[in-house]
Amino acid sequence: MLDKTKSPKDLGNIISRISTAEQWRDGNYREDWRRYYRLYRSKVASMEGRSNVFVPYTFMQIEVIKSRLSESLFSARPYLTVLPRGDEDKSRGEKVQTLLDWQMNERMDLQRMCNDKLLQSLCCYGTAVTYTGWLVETRKVKSNQTIAAPLEDQFGQPLLDQFGTPLTMASRQVMEREIAVYDDPVCQSVDIFDFFVDPDAEDIADSRY
Question: How far does CA 205 lie from the centroid of its chain?
């Protein structure tokens, strides 16, 4: 869906950049990547007059390497160690480490994402791309809440007790409020054919887009 806040000129620049990056990528890597994928899936061009038996050695090697990488990365928790800058930060460092470990496993499900897509792309194409960011999802819920409704006289004036405090009466009303369903980091695997990068860049750090 197009971002309606973007002007036609901005959209034209974005499409032009994608087209330039795609042409450069396809001209340098597309055929190699397609060949790597066919080898991984044990798909070879049929030849007449000879056997078309293909030993799935490429598939076997990739699956073995992928399993070993996964084991080395995720065999023990926590995956990251947070070191304090000083003795006074030791307690906070432990809390940050616990938070990161919980987010990586319970919210981001990092191990499953790496095992299913990321490591396979890395082993098959030599390149793996991920998107990391922060995702906030909310939804509206309705619930019965008890509120203190002020008592008023026939003229609409609040009734007061002997101390001058407004009188109230408990009342139940249906209230609608917005709650956060997800408010944590997110990590997603990006298909290598959906990744467009500046052709003149030497690395991601100095890429214009």
Answer: 20
pLDDT digits (tens, 9 = 90+) for 109-162: 889 988 888 999 999 999 899 999 999 999 998 888 787 778 877 777 887 777
pTM for this entry: 0.68
